[in-house]
Amino acid sequence: MTETIRTAALAGATLTTGLVAGLFFAFTCAVMPGLAATDDRTLVGTMQSINRKILNGWFLSAFLGALPLLAAAVATHLTRGGPVLLWTVAALACHLVTFGVTVGLNVPLNNRLEAAGPVDRVADLSEVRAWFEATWVRGNIVRTISSVAAFACLIAALLAGRG
How far is the C-alpha of 116 from the C-alpha of 97, rounded, in Å? Predict the structure, then answer.
């Protein structure tokens, strides 16, 4: 296996994981606290709109691309062993937490929020907000921590590979 392929897999995994970590971090630090300060209609309507708009090529390339790139980074370093492999395996484990929380908790909540219907037709917006907001925020905090940890592990792998 050439060094170029190893480096490309690790660089791609680092880039996509970093983009995902940054997105979840932005929701943790700014988006959800900002929406928490608004009324029920604003939070529900805004999150419905965000959930629709985030399903685009930019996001999907990073989010869905990170997992195979992480797997490729691990696979290309298997024969070498050492700290780069250990850091990439740790990053993959952390990213699996991110992926699992996203598809197991946040996406189903997003789908349920969409199924509630347009904000103009929701009978009790405060009830919708109550079952959505706190649980979604907790899940996002978990995936923020796990994705930032994965990104940090990949930075460590890159640095370990320099030596």
Answer: 28
